[in-house]
């Protein structure tokens, strides 16, 4: 059994924490989400939604029920108990667990009506932003705030290299948010201490737990899709494959979560980003370091796509191109060998065939 106590607000130096005492088996711990002082008023201490979602993978993995001693949103209680938990536990072959709460609240939390999205400066993130800026969205759906979360994408909480990568990436994101003229909310959290699964398999719930901590702020939140909707599947490798399901299940009476650009392939998204000038200064896709290394899979995939669509020139100052050209031929061979088992490589391969790119390489 996991027990979640009543969330509380705590001020520590220049940050404000939303935290709750949690008990896992016999062990007591604290799960927290922290923001800068000026955003402290938006932390939602009267619902435990963030904590339930932050701990859901832990509970699923160990077959623990979650007992919540504070109110949770009724919609969330209904969707996760009726759909999300049964679907994930069946797919992973886990015991079906229950979230137990005697205080369900169906009232929307009064919020600032903000519209948020993550600013990771990657292809998916910039596509969401550019698509939202370029198309005439109704006022209440135009992005007002960017977010940057420390929920595991920079490595496990507490590790030295995680701290360094997190801090270096914040610098890029902050400069980019300034240039785009929108506020940036950074949420630090120790949630990654409580999830032993790979980040890729669990990122949607981890990140959305940070959004649910800010339900006094957000009315709408866009989570960038990774894969085209046609590739929807339940996957133990990457929760993004079923984000359309996840985000509908994790929305509450107060915040509506959407998977953005679901009808775009990664090649289409790269084409979109190639038209977005701020990306020429800030595109950041590397999985290894804050500066694009030019040789990891994500750098190679992005560079090869940029080259194929004739847009490499605009991005060349952001990448180690020497590494790219050293690894490029090997990566093209990888695309040819593995495109059948990897939907993102398949999109690149299809584009190669469509544009006759491979025959130009001989
Ligand atoms: Zn890289």
Report on the architecture of this protein.
This protein is of the alpha/beta class. The protein has three domains: 104 residues, no CATH class; 147 residues, Rossmann fold (3-Layer(aba) Sandwich), CATH 3.40.50; 71 residues, no CATH class. It has twelve helices and 13 strands. Strands 1, 2, 3, 4, 5, 7, 9, 10, 11, 12 and 13 form an eleven-stranded mixed beta sheet that branches. The chain has a two-stranded parallel ribbon with strand order 6-8. Helix 3 packs across helix 7, helix 9 crosses helix 10 and helix 9 packs parallel to helix 11. The longest helix is centred in the middle third of the chain and has 21 residues. The model has no long low-confidence stretch (mean pLDDT 94). The structure holds zinc ion. The site of zinc ion has 8 residues, from helix 9.
Morphology: globular
Q: How do the SSEs run, as a string of H and E?
A: EEEEHEEHEEEHEHEHEHEHHHHHH
CATH fold descriptor of the largest domain: Rossmann fold
Mean pLDDT: 94
CATH class of the largest domain: Alpha Beta
In the CATH hierarchy, what is the architecture of the largest domain at level 2? 3-Layer(aba) Sandwich
Strand segment tally: 13
Structural class: alpha/beta
User: If helices are DSSP runs of H or I spanning 4 or more residues, what is the number of helices?
Assistant: 12
**Rg to the nearest angstrom?**
21 Å
For the sheet with most strands, the description reads: 11 strands, mixed
Termini distance? 61 Å
Q: Ligands in the structure?
A: zinc ion
């Amino acid at each position: 059994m996991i027990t979640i106590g009543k969330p509380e607000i705590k001020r520590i130096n220049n940050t404000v924490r939303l935290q709750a005492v949690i008990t896992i088996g016999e062990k007591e711990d604290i799960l927290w989400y922290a923001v800068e002082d000026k955003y402290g008023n938006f932390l939602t201490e009267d619902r435990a939604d963030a904590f339930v979602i932050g701990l859901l993978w832990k509970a699923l993995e160990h077959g623990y029920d979650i007992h919540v001693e504070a109110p949770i949103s009724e919609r969330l209680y209904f969707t996760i108990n009726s759909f999300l938990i049964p679907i994930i536990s069946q797919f992973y072959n886990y015991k079906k667990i229950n979230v137990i709460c005697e205080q369900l609240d169906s009232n929307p939390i009064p919020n600032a009506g903000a519209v948020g999205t993550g600013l990771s400066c990657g292809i998916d993130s910039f596509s969401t932003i550019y698509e939202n800026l370029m198309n005439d969205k109704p006022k209440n759906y135009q992005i007002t705030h960017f977010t940057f979360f420390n929920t595991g994408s920079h490595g496990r909480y507490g590790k030295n290299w995680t701290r360094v990568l997190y801090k270096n990436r914040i610098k890029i994101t902050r400069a980019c948010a300034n240039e785009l003229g929108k506020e940036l909310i950074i949420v630090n959290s120790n949630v990654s201490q409580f999830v032993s699964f790979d980040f890729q398999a669990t990122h949607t719930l981890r990140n959305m737990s940070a959004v649910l901590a800010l339900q006094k702020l957000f009315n709408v939140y866009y989570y960038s899709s990774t894969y085209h909707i046609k590739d929807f599947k339940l996957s133990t490798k990457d929760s993004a494959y079923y984000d359309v399901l996840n985000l509908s299940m994790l929305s509450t009476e107060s915040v509506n979560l959407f998977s953005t650009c679901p009808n775009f392939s990664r090649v289409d998204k790269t084409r979109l980003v190639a038209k977005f000038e701020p990306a020429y200064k800030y595109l950041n896709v590397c999985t290894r370091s804050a500066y694009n290394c030019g040789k990891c899979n994500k750098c190679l995939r992005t560079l090869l796509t940029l080259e194929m669509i004739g847009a490499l020139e605009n991005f060349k100052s952001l990448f180690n191109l020497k590494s790219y050209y050293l690894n490029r031929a090997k990566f093209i061979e990888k695309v040819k060998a593995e495109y059948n088992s990897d939907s993102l490589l398949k999109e690149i391969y299809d584009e190669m065939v469509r544009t006759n790119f491979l025959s130009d390489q001989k």
